[in-house]
Amino acid sequence: MSAREASFSLPWLDRRGEFSSLKALVFAGILLPGLWLTVRAISGTLGPRAMIEINHQAGLWAVRFLLLTLAVTPLRFIWRWPELVFLRRMLGVAVFAYAAIHLVAYAGDLTFDVPKVVSEIFARPYLTIGFAALIMLIPLAATSTNGMMRRMGGLQWRALHKLIYPITALAAVHFFLQSKLGVTEPIVIAALAIWLGAWRLLAARIGEQRAGSLAVTIGLAAVVVIGTALGEALYYYLKIGVPFTRILPTNFAWKSGIRPAWIVLGIAIVVIAVAYGRGLLEARRPRGRRAQASVAAKPSPSPAQRQGKAA
Hints:
Elements: H1 3-8, H2 21-43, H3 50-78, H4 88-109, H5 114-123, H6 125-142, H7 146-152, H8 154-160, H9 164-178, H10 184-206, H11 208-211, H12 214-240, H13 244-247, H14 260-284, H15 287-297, H16 303-310
């Protein structure tokens, strides 16, 4: 590894080996949940079953970072922000780290009785699904370095990393099935996963630039928000037989509490607002500076991408 590659491997440096405030901020955000759990563990505020609390929190953050990893490419085009691509590896490694902590904490709650842990994983479907997602994460984490990209070649590397799609599906199902107290966040997670998957399918059909346009983003967001409200109503109908006419109106009543569709709507508003704001800023730039900024912001191809094009 060259000195330049070694410096680039540091999570707070950009591809030129210079300090990146964006990467540093995201790196700090990745570490915060783990640090907070550590502080709570030291202070003894994790509750009577500390390992289960660590298990739940680590699993929750693994799913959140997984969605953020999957969101990098859509947001690159929706927000016209090419530099976001350099966050994907960092977020992906964070997903694996928190998922591994999730499993270790579960084993810790069972006093690291390996035969019992294994039997529980295969006896409970939601644990089997979650474990399968973790196993599929291992090759992605192991091949996240520049060296592995070069050894595998661009085509093989990209083909392997498409595992993120079934991993996301399995993680969403696992998260939904293991939720016992409430389903608001599992429904939101499922809705966001469907949104990101739908964007990928749409981008493959009409192109990433068009899929990232403001009009398409608003339209797709509206479909997902409405689908979230309908999905919540369908869940309660299938689960306990509550009719649609009782659940759907709660999306228009403040006293009913925060509904999943509201959360998805809030996320959609943020995405659209940032896209609109960046569009206004871009439009105000002089044409020459706009072109220079576009060239400067365009990420250079990775070794894997270069080998893929050559192939």
